[in-house]
Write a structure and sequence with these properties.
The protein is mostly helical. It contains 3 helices and no strands. Helix 1 (about 1-20) crosses helix 3 (about 60-70). The longest helix has 21 residues, at about 1-20.
């Protein structure tokens, strides 16, 4: 239990660092969408599934929306039609 509490605390600390950066920048590197955003998006957009509350992080929530608006964005739950079994 103690280890889980420590992990949650560290996760919230990391979200705080991200929030501070995104409060003054639209993206993480070079002022535009890069692989850094893709890498950080992977876990951040599902943080709520791991009991992290993103409500106190408005800049992160806005950044998540900006990522989802990128041309060619493919959501994690995307499955090509060929991969969907016929019913």
């Amino acid at each position: 239990q103690h280890a889980l509490e420590d992990w949650m605390e560290e996760g919230n600390r990391a979200l705080g660092v991200m929030e501070k950066h995104l409060a003054v920048h639209d993206f993480f590197v070079a002022g535009h969408y890069t692989i850094a955003d893709i890498a950080l998006y992977a876990y951040t957009h599902i943080a709520s599934q791991c009991d992290y509350d993103l409500a106190p992080f408005p800049a992160i929530r806005a950044w998540l929306d900006r990522i989802a608006e990128q041309p060619g964005y493919v959501p994690m739950e995307f499955r090509p039609a060929a991969a969907i079994p016929a019913i």
